[in-house]
Amino acid sequence: MSEARAAILARLRRSLPRSADEQAAAEATVHERLAAPAPNLLPARGQLDRDGRVRLFTDMARAVAAEVELLDELEAVPAAVATYLRRHNLPQRIVVAPDPLLDLARWEGQPLLRVRRGDAEPDDAVGVTLASTGIAETGTLLLTSAPERPTLLAFLPETSIVVVFADEIDGAYEQSWARLRAALGTPPRSVNLITGPSRTGDIAQQIELGAHGPRRLLVLVVDRSPPLDD
Amino acid sequence: MEATSLRFRERAAGALENAQLQTALAGIKVGWQAGRARAAARLPEFEQLRDLGKAIKDHTLAHLDLYLEAFEARVVEQGGKVHWARDAAEARGIVLELCRAAGARSVTKSKSMIAEEIGLNAWLEANGLRVVETDLGEYIIQLRREPPSHLVGPAVHLTKDQISDLFVEHHGGPRIEEPAALVGEARRILRQRYLEADVGITGANFLIAETGSAVTVTNEGNAELTQGLPRTHIVIASLEKVIPTVEDAFTLLRLLGRSATGQEFSAYTTFVTGPKRPGDLDGPEAFHVVLLDNGRSAMVGTAFREMLRCIRCGACMNHCPVYLAAGGHAYGWVYVGPMGSVLTPQFIGIEQGYPLPNASTFCGRCEEVCPVRIPLPRLMRLWREEQFRKALVPPTARWGLRLWGALARRPFLYRLTARWAARALRLLARGRGRLAAAPLAGGWTGTRDLPAPQGGTFMDQWRRRRR
Ligand code: SF4
To answer: Which of A43, B120, B306, B322 is the most exposed place for a label (fewest CB within 10 A)?
Structure first.
């Protein structure tokens, strides 16, 4: 369909007539803008110190029906998960993203909890994933795909449990993305920003949770990041 | 979809008498309209973000050719493919070809206005594919074989009872009345469809030139299941969806949810870039983007370029007195409300869309709330001028306008006529202060009385007060 491509671009150029100089300037402008992306405006709301960001993140996530628990360290995660499942009358069976960081949580400390590492199958009820960052401004989680971080695990199961380190909670989306860009260069296949559980207002404008994605979202904010390996 | 915009008057009249529809439309005011006001008030930078949003779109449109080329290059680098379609037929052909190449029998779709614009579902179904809409609202109107009546809430015109009836008819089983149970039933049925699908088709709220990503925004999580489960993911989007950088997307995303439903942020915003990477446990093997022109490349060179800033938030219709009375279906095509009144004639021609730019009280609410500051009333007025030029305006109205024009340009004559008219109306009212009928005003007096002028004309009163 290169014929269509040429025709569309030709018509666009007729609609946007530029002299040779203007063309060169336009190309330079576009090149510059793409080469050095910069935030347009960061709302003041999220620009707080670490504690302030964690507090705002928690409040905003709770306002959209997510449950948020603050834990001291990663080793507290399995017990928090088990307690949560009991409270909601859910079976003690979870699928955990095969992420070495999540392995550090020592799931074997909860012998009643049956844990599978991997991606979600259609019948799995509970998925546990690790968010790359959190965003305080709207209580949003940012998940990135990778072999050890399958995307569907946060979407298929009815209950989604997401771990995020307090150190990784930024004030604004752009600040998270800038760190992602610095670490990875190009984005991974899927970057999912998640703000509360799935919802719909399509039946008589009444908000119902759990339309297609998770009906419940538990966010575990872990205060102490695990030490980096050398 | 065949346009029925010429029947606007008749359908709007029917809508006013449809009690179920009026209940549904009334909900928009307390829900989305009030929600937007609250969300805007909560973010001090909101007005500034609107200026920035407008500037991002204006900048992109002025360099649209270059950003599209950059976008395509990035998609290809990430292992995806870009297909360019001049018009609806070409786009439908490309999508069908891609489905065939994937050996597809079953297709899931998340909400896309572009798919509606090109009549994609009907075409794929006519070619033997099963197409299932996954956005709950879209699924509902697909069962009803109806077009969407709202940009954001395609089934907003239906009450809970109508949906209960619809589900009994299509799913069988006992009648469910609880909204939560209705959502649960749709979830159960659609879950199966996701798993069966060979191809997932999504729209895109934004395409990002910097990274070659497509951005989808949903509250249900249906876009992620639509594109994440099948082997092939096809994105269909129109040219003007491209924007420069991820940062630009975030500026616009801050406006989108707040303007649409009053949410601080929609539940799911996803950036997808190319197909599955080596080692990934999920994701599609093939990633295609179909770029649709359908008249937009020419529109860029006209005064209607401003309309291409639209981010499809629906705020203009949520605040439009005409939309809130007539509902979306009266507009007779895919795009409804004020944005539809400007956009639809572009696609179906001003002859077929004649009533739309006239379906406005010019109250200006739409422009006041449009996150990217599109001057919708002015653009509707441009269409009206076009109608006048093309002699599409009925003779009586043309004479009326000419006569008024002739008077308005002669102040003395204008004042004299106004004075006579005021006096005549007062006499006709015979001291009751209002008229049950008046010449040339049947449309007004059909449902209410016309207050008779009290005292002199405005100009006379103005002069008296100033002294
Ligand atoms: S015209 Fe403006 S208000 Fe209407 S849908 Fe588009 S962006 Fe939203």
So the answer is: A43
Q: Tell me the pLDDT tens digit for each residue of A147-168.
A: 999 999 999 999 999 999 999 9
Q: What is the ipTM, given to two decimal places? A: 0.97
Closest CA to A156 of A219, A77, A99, A210: A210
Which of B256, B312, B341, B356 best tests ligand 1's pocket when mutated (most atoms within 8 Å of CB)? B312
pLDDT of residue B439: 65
B311 lines ligand 1 (CB under 6 A): yes
Mean pLDDT of chain A: 96
Q: What residues in chain B have per-residue pLDDT under 50?
A: none
State percent of chain B over pLDDT 70: 97
DSSP string, chain A: -HHHHHHHHHHHHHHS---HHHHHHHHHHHHHHHHS---S---GGG---HHHHHHHHHHHHHHTT-EEEEESSGGGHHHHHHHHHHHTT--SEEEE---HHHHTT-GGG-TT-EEEESPPPTT--EEEEE-SEEEGGGTEEEEE-BTTB-SGGGTSSSEEEEEEEGGGEESSHHHHHHHHHHHHSSPPSEEEEE-SS-EE-TTTT--EE-SSS-SEEEEEEESSPPPPP-
Q: What is the pLDDT of residues A41-91, one digit of tens each?
A: 999 999 999 999 999 999 999 999 999 999 999 999 999 999 999 999 999
Quick one: pLDDT band at residue A230, thresholds 50, 70, 90?
A: very low
Q: Which of B150, B151, B313 should be mutated for ligand 1, with most atoms under 8 A from CB?
A: B313
User: Which domains, and CATH codes, for chain B?
Assistant: 1-42+314-392 (no CATH), 64-297 (3.40.50.10420), 396-466 (no CATH)
Nearest-CA distance from A22 to chain B in Å?
A: 11
Choosing among A212, A216, A219, which should be mutated to test the B contact, i.e. which has the most B CBs within 10 A?
A212
Q: Is B153–A177 a contact, with Cβ atoms under 8 angstroms apart?
A: no
Residues contacting residue B233 through CB under 8 Å, at least 6 positions apart: B199, B200, B201, B202, B227, B272, B275, B284, B286, B287, B288
How confident is the model over B330-364, as pLDDT tens digits?
999 999 999 999 999 999 988 888 888 888 888 99
